[in-house]
Design brief:
alpha+beta; 3 helices; Translation Initiation Factor IF3; 4 strands
Length: about 100
């Protein structure tokens, strides 16, 4: 699902007050991190992830691994924090604008 600019702006507004739910440590993307990511996206749909890594390339690589494994969309990335969204088809919690 590709998000429109209006939907991204709406989700950024909702994510502003959120705290990071998932903290990616020095070991990077592990199966347990992916399981926790799946659980968090199913429960919340919109989450913040704090990425570890000294350089931008490492963080971008870790973020791409998370996105590929979960099927989530990257709403916004600022520094070490990324906002991810994936709609829960069974019980949607967030109604996106068109």
């Amino acid at each position: 699902m590709q998000l429109t600019p209006t939907q991204r702006r709406y989700l950024r507004g909702l994510a502003h007050l959120l705290k990071p739910v998932l903290l990616l440590g020095g070991k990077g993307v592990t199966p347990s991190v992916l399981a926790e990511l799946e659980h968090a996206l199913d429960d919340h749909e919109l989450i913040k992830v704090k990425l570890a890594g000294a350089d931008r390339g490492e963080r971008a690589s870790s973020l791409m691994q998370l996105l590929d494994a979960s099927g989530a969309e990257n709403v916004q990335t600022i520094g070490h924090v990324a906002v991810l969204y994936r709609r829960n088809d069974e019980q949607p919690k967030i109604a996106l604008p068109r």
